[in-house]
Each structure stands twice: as C-alpha cells, then as structure tokens.
Amino acid sequence: MNRFKKITCSFLSVVLTVVSLHAADTVEQWGVYEVTLKGPTNGNPFLDVRFAAKFAQGYDSIEVPGFYDGDGNYRVRFMPEKQGAWKYETVSGTPELNGKTGEFTVTKPTAGNHGPVHIANTFHFAYADGKPYKQLGTTCYVWTHQPEELQEQTLKTLAASPFNKIRFCVFPKRYTWNTNEPTIYPFEGKPRNFDTARFNPKFFQHFEQRILDLQKLGIEADIILLHPYDDGAWGFDRMTAVEDDRYLRYVVARLAAFRNVWWSLANEYDFMKFKTEDDWERIGQLVSGSDPFHHLLGIHNGKRIFNQTRPWITHASIQNGAAVAEFGRAELYRDAFRKPIVYDEVKYEGDIESRWGQLSAEELVFRFWNATIAGTYCGHGETYKSDDQILWWSKGGVLKGQSPARLAFLKKILDDSPAEGIEPVDKWQDTPIGGKPPEYYLVYLGKQTPTSWEFKLPKPPQGKGQPPADGMKFTAEVLDTWNMTVMPVDGVFTLKKKDNYYHADKDGRSITLPGKPYMAIRIKRVKE
Amino acid sequence: MNRFKKITCSFLSVVLTVVSLHAADTVEQWGVYEVTLKGPTNGNPFLDVRFAAKFAQGYDSIEVPGFYDGDGNYRVRFMPEKQGAWKYETVSGTPELNGKTGEFTVTKPTAGNHGPVHIANTFHFAYADGKPYKQLGTTCYVWTHQPEELQEQTLKTLAASPFNKIRFCVFPKRYTWNTNEPTIYPFEGKPRNFDTARFNPKFFQHFEQRILDLQKLGIEADIILLHPYDDGAWGFDRMTAVEDDRYLRYVVARLAAFRNVWWSLANEYDFMKFKTEDDWERIGQLVSGSDPFHHLLGIHNGKRIFNQTRPWITHASIQNGAAVAEFGRAELYRDAFRKPIVYDEVKYEGDIESRWGQLSAEELVFRFWNATIAGTYCGHGETYKSDDQILWWSKGGVLKGQSPARLAFLKKILDDSPAEGIEPVDKWQDTPIGGKPPEYYLVYLGKQTPTSWEFKLPKPPQGKGQPPADGMKFTAEVLDTWNMTVMPVDGVFTLKKKDNYYHADKDGRSITLPGKPYMAIRIKRVKE
Q1: Nearest Cβ partner for B326 among A309, A328, A338
Q2: What pTM does this model have?
Q3: Is there a contact between B295 and B116 (Cβ–Cβ < 8 Å)?
Q4: Strand residues in B29-143 grouped as ranges (E)
C-alpha cells in the first residue's frame, strides 16, 4: 500500500549506518525515521505540494512537515522521543502522497546516543536521557563550504578537540579572508540569479552529511540560519519575508529530525540591515513553531543584544567578550534573562589586526573560566593569520593556538563537576566561587597571584543548597589551569563558623599557592 | 450648576500655595487642577460610588479617576500637560456627581516647575519641558511614618543635600531598627483589624503634603506601593488581589496628578512571599493602565531581578551593588533591558553588622562614578548605627556620612555634562570612559593610582556620535572625586590618528596625575 522506503540516495546511507543500523521497521530512540514517497515532479514541487505526516503512539501524536528532495522524492523525517510502537499517516493535498500509513518500532538508543540537548536546571543543559551536557563550543562559520579535503581535515581536528558544539552557517560567507566562492548553493541558479523558490537538494544532502559527521563525534551542530556577510554577492542576507519564511520552513523540515541540531536564527542579527526586530520576532516564532522536536533556539548579536526574554528563545547566545573579561560580570545576564547563557563569541585567540581577533591564549582561557564559575558557558574561536587564508574561525582546518589544550583540561574539570551544573555560590558578593554547596566548590583566582588562600566557604543564597556547617569535612586540590596540573592538598579541612557569612577551617588553615596567575582550587566534601 | 471648588481642607491649601497661586479657574501647566463635589456619605463611599471626570482640550481628551476623600467630598485631580483652555465633565453612577461641567485655563508653568520626569534618549531622563534630569537618589523608607519633628528634620537635610529623588513607602515598616508603631494608617481600623475597604483620608492627606514638600525642594518622590517588611504586624504585605487592586487604584487616583511622583510597585518584590510573578504582572498593568499621566514606573528586586523588558516598566530599578563595584559591569543591564538603569540599591554607607550596610563612603562614591561613566544612575543610602534607632536608610533625620558631599560634587559634574546624558563611549572595550563623542568625555580611574594618563580618545560605536578626527582640539581637567577639586590641565590637546581605534594627542602628550585613587579626567572639545 504505502510506497515509503527508508532512505535511498547515497548520502543517506549514512543515516542508516550511523543512526539506526536497523531494518526499515525499527529505528532507535532519537534516531531518524524517514518516510519517502514518490510524487509529482511537474511544476515547482517545492511550492506546489504540501506534504506532512502524523506520527502517533497511543494518545501522543505529532505532525511533522515533510519536504521535497528532488527526483520525485517526498520525505518526512521523524525523531522519535519515546520507545515502543509508533504509527504514521501521511497528509497531502496530492492524492498519491496522502493517507499512506505505516507502523514501526522504536528501540532503545545505541551507545553514544543520548538524545537532543535541552535546558536543565534553568541555566544549564542536559541530553534527553539525563546525561549532563557542559557546553564547550567553537566556531567555523563556513567550514561546510570549503573544499572536501579541508572539511575532512576540520572533522579530524574536531575529533581530537575538546569541543562539543560548533557554530556554522547554512549560507556561504563573504568577508575578509573569505572570498572563495562555494561550489554549491542552497538554491538553484547562480550568483545574482538565484531562484529562491527552488532549493538545491544536493546542497542540503551534503549539509546533512556534515551534521551527521558531527553527530558521530558527539558534537552539537549550532546551525546559523541567516547572517549578514553576503556583501551583495548572493543576496541571501536580503531576501524578502516570503523568501525567508519559505527557506526557514524547508530547512527546519529537512534538519529538525537530527538530534544534534541547534538553531541560531542569525549571527550578528543586528548587522543585517535589511531586517527589523519585528522580522526577527516573526522568524523566531516561525522556527520555534515549525520545529516538531523543539531544538534549542538562540539569536546571536553584534552590538545590540536581542531581547533574550522572548519565550521562543531557549538560551541566550551572546556576543560580548567584556562580559567574561572579569570575575563578576558573566552572572549579570543570568539574572537578566533567567535562561542558560552561552557566551558564543568572546573574541578570538589570534593575531589579526582587528581587536576582536587578537586575544592571547591565556586571555581566552581566562574568559572560559570566568564564564564557568559564574554558571554560564563560553565559546572558543581562533584567528591566526595564514597565507593560505585558512583561519579556523571561518574555514576550519587545523588549530594553531594554545587554548584548546587548556580547554581540554577545563573539560575534564567540567566532566567531574556536579551534574546539575556549576552555580555562582554567592553571586553578588564573593564572585570567584562557583559550585554546588556544600558538596563542591570551584574557586578561580584568575590574574591574581596569591601565595595562599584562606580556606573559607560562603553561605549560599537561601534555597540554593544546604549551607556549610560546623564539622563538615572537605578535601582540596590546586589546579593550574594554564599548566594543566592537579595538585592534591594534604589533609582534610573541617569547618567552623567564622562569621555571619563564612565557615572557615577550624584551625584557620590556608592553602599554599605558587604565586602564579590562572590558579584554581577545587574543593569537595568528604563523604562520611 | 457645578458645585466644584478648588481645594477646601487645610492640607490642600498647600496645593494652592505651591502648585498654582491662581484663582480656581486657572492652573499652571503640570500643576494640580482639582474638582471637588459633595456626594453621598452613606454605605461605603469608597466601594459604592464610581466617580471620574473627562478633561478635554480640542481633540485631546483624557478620563481621570476620582476618589472619595471623606466628609462627603469626592475629588478628581488633573495634571494638565498642555497650556490653554480646558473643559471637564464628571462621570458617575450617582446623579449628584454626574455630568457636572466646568472650564479652566492652563497657564505657563512657574519658575522651578519643569513638569514630570520622563525617559529621554532611551537610557536617560528629562523633565517634560526638556530640562535634563540626572538622577541622584537616596532612600528613607518610612520617613513619613516618623514623628512630625523628625519628618521636618529630614526635609531640612534633604534641602541641603544633592539628592533629587527619594524612595519611600506608603505602608509602615517592621524591621531591625524599625519597631516603632506609626500613629496613623492608610486604612480604617487598627493592627490585626484593618478594614481595607475603607481608606483613611487623613493618612493620605498627610502623605500628599510630604510629596508636595519634596516637590518644593525639586525632589522626585519614588513611591513604594508595596513591600515585604510587615512581619505580620499589619498584614499589608499579604492582602488579597482584590484588596491590592482596590488600594492601588485609590493611591493612583489620589497621587497621579502630583508631577513629582514615580511609582515603584514594590521594594524587593521577590521577598513578598504571598505574591507570584503573575500577581506583579497584574499589578504592573493595573498601575500603568490606571495612571492617566504615565508616571515613571519600576519594580525593585531583592535577589531575583524582575523581567525588566516588560512594556509597562519604564526604567529598570535594580538592587545589585556588585553591578557597580567595577568599571565594566553597569553597562551590561543597559544592553539587556534597553531602558534607563537606576541602581537604586548598591548597599549602604554605614557600620551595621549586615554586609549590605557597611560600605565605606569611598566605596559608595566609587559605585556612583562607575554607574555614571557606564550611562546609568545610582542611589545613595546610609546605615550608621545609632542609639536612638534613627538610621537615614529607614527613618531619615540627619546624614552622618561622608559620601553626600562627594555626591554633591558629582552632581556639579553631572549638571555640566551633556544634556542628552553620558553614554559609554566604547562599551565593551574601554569601559572607564563615558561621554558624548566628540564633544565631551569623562574618564574615571577608580581605584587605580596612575601618575599619568595618555591623552587618547576611542572611536565610538557606529552611529553613536561623530568619531574623533585629526586636528580636533580639546581641553582637560583633572577631577579629584574624593577631595572634590577640579584642576585645569595646561594647554590644548590636538588629535592625530594613533591606530584603528584611537586618536591621541599629536605630540604624544599625557596628563599628569597625582598617583591617588578616585581621580577622573574631564575632556571638552574646544569650540572653534
């Protein structure tokens, strides 16, 4: 009866291999279950044919938009969020695509599949299966637009890196160090003559392949849907609302079933001179409302931060290096927005002339730590000059800087930190301390170079964890965040009330420090 | 026909004296035009009688709610925002209060009357006549609940102070150092037995007198409508929604015609355990929607900042001392909220045990300057221990600290600063500089103790003023913000491009500094 089949064309074999490894009537939880039907090829199938499917399990039902993938293939992709038996029925105004039904079984996820990342504990993230996700992102804006060999190199570099998220654009980029024309475009046509009503399936098939490549590496794909770096070369930054909406619906229909997808409405939205804030509100509602799987959704700013309290924004994707350039700043946006804060751009490790691209590695790592102890997350970027025009920031390739090794060290610290996330302990007072009172504290000393640190723990805000109390015992380690060492401190610290705000070691002991910058202290409660 | 008369009872003679000095058929712009009618005294006039008036000038028409003031007097108060001829007609379900008409003339404002304060240039304030208003506030929470003699002393202290705004509560306060019972309450009844459906006109008549006393001194009255410091003594912190709404409508009807009124929905709204955020949303909409004159409206936080992007909030009234404890923080909330930021509580100069009340005068003044150069505003408070329990913070009286003199110095600097307000010049980069490029710059050096400062001016953000250019000439003055001195620097500085981001003096000159903390440099362009 129904002519659907699970994935036919070559690139999609990867879906089969990576995502399911199951026969067509089973798929793992959070995998991609795809229904493909043959349909009309006349006229403009992208415009003329509506195609969707309803997926149901008991009383749970979800309608998923489909898309035309060229060659008469109409597809709809479903990411099942529950195991067990599911049914579907297609919906279309075109008879041959309408009312087709099927059944399939969703099995438990295979190793390494933890589902999509969602918000957890207001300010943090977790995979759908509950595993904590400690965001440590990087950016290569148009790595998928580079020669295949370079793309493969980027993937190899990412595989060896600590990064678990990468920000990149659907559209190509025209900017300093980015003047190479891509070989393939998302629309039919060519520069200055694109038909935005006809998508280029090959472009998206390739793009999806790269999303899956990242998925294999355990890396989230933070997909930048629109950006201003077009310079009139292609006109993708100045499409009409009708064109934008059609493009966005198509992209969401194609990509939303991939579990590692995040949406970023735009990079530097406020630099897109052809759009108003009302446009972004419309676009935000459209993407949020048309994604059946509710992926994370952000909008990233240039100079003017978007109103991050809008309900369709899941997390604040912020460009502002200054906000993490000092202990006490990063937390302020948590209070303002009450959502996870991801400082996706804090300037770049590099040596280019622009001041946004000439941070030292030390400074970039410092900013990550400032973000961390404030209960927020940070993003890496690299802009070392290169004769071959290949800067990681935009094209990928290899990493040349010194920060990634230190961020790998930070990642180990994060992986060992409380599952619920690191919270500021005393947010407006003793800002260099994050943790989960009274079990875990991370004290960061930044550019200070003390030779000792008095062992004392602040009282957390009311309702934010059990306060320290007399007799509680702790061990401590001194972390050199630059030289990547962990040095246990001898002995156990036992608390005694010091004043209204602090408990200190009962014998007044301090921790000896080497008088160098970028030191931290990790304190854990002794389980008794 | 109509029996209105302008002000009868004794306290309101002040309105006549202060506000208008006119006969009953004229009133100055932004004065109070009051219509009083005699009406029913049976039943509960506060509940039973609806009374309002429509005021009209040509096509402009505004309906103003009235209120019952006891003794059979029904009043409606109008603050005319335009000069010329006005008419009114009363509206009531009670025949004797309905359909009464009259005419009056609104004359130009008298000296010292600049109208109400409104938002100007997104982040700043101005009076209705265009005069800039540079907020320099203080707080005496319950000064109007103290013995009359102490209230008079507070007014005398305020008259000699630099403050142009004071925050205070309608309701009495029960808290440390605040255990004296007030002599009069806003409702009929007594503690644990108030009738919240019957207001006490005498209470409000007195309260209004104090608002007018402040008006005479050129001080804005930031009226805190609700607060949590009740401790069950009176129950004003735990009224039902019906009681709250009735109370708020009554207060707005009584007070909205006084031009120096601001509304603060609450102090530390999040410490009011009997209200939800939905309650605050309802209350905010009610106050905003029932005020015919659109006074400034804020909601002040304890630990949890309200969503300051809500449209009924005119300016962010923030408690967070940490946000002004360092150069680069205060600006962050501007970006987040896109409204004027008033740091109404940044801790207190004082010596009490609680850490919120033991700032040094130096630290408090430092915080004001940090707020200033970031394009935001700050609030003063004082908590010096006192045997007589009279702490300025709560009861008023006399000021004992060293900050007010330095804030008076700051006020002189502000009065001389650009009318449009001081803006951060290079908000995420060179944070210690505020001003109006390229006419005026204020460099604040805070706790740094340099012996010289290289004369160089950053490029402002695109669209934020004309950038510095070669050949522009400037004079400079060194300000000692603690010792309150202004020292002109010899000669004129002439700009020459230094790099992509700065113009410096063409001869590479620096300004000599004394190596002390709390210095600032004021730079003004030479008019040619």
Answers
A1: A328
A2: 0.94
A3: yes
A4: 33-38, 51-57, 60-68, 73-78, 84-92, 101-107, 117-120, 124-127, 136-139
Q: Which of chain B's residues have a Cβ under 8 Å away from the Cβ of A325?
A: 328
How far is it, in rounded angstroms, from Cα B281 to Cα B381?
28
Which residues of chain B neighbour A322 with C-beta distances below 8 Å?
A: 328, 427-429, 431
The C-alpha atoms of residue B113 and residue B125 are separated, in whole angstroms, by 16
Enumerate chain A positions whose Cβ falls within 8 A of a Cβ in B: 303-305, 307-309, 320-323, 325-326, 328-329, 332-333, 335-338, 353-355, 427-429, 431, 461, 500-501
Tell me whether residues A335 and B320 touch, CB distance under 8 A: yes
Q: What is the pLDDT of residues A472-509, one digit of tens each?
A: 999 999 999 999 999 999 999 999 999 999 999 999 99
Q: Tell me the nearest-neighbour CA distance from B289 into chain A, angstroms.
A: 23
Secondary structure (3-state) at A58: coil
pLDDT on residue A430: 86
What tokens does B201 get? 């006109």
Average pLDDT, 10 consecutive residues per value, chain B (528 residues): 36 36 75 97 97 96 98 98 97 97 97 98 98 98 98 98 98 94 95 95 98 98 97 94 98 98 98 97 98 98 97 98 94 97 98 96 98 98 95 98 98 98 92 94 97 95 83 98 98 96 97 98 94
CA-CA-CA-CA torsion sign (A427, A433, A434, A435):
negative
Chain A, nearest residue to B329 by Cα: A329
Contacts of A334 in chain B (CB under 8 A): none
Backbone φ and ψ for B207, nearest 5 degrees, come out as -60, -40
Q: Provide mean pLDDT across the span A358-371.
A: 98
Q: Which residues of B touch A273 (CB under 8 A)?
A: none
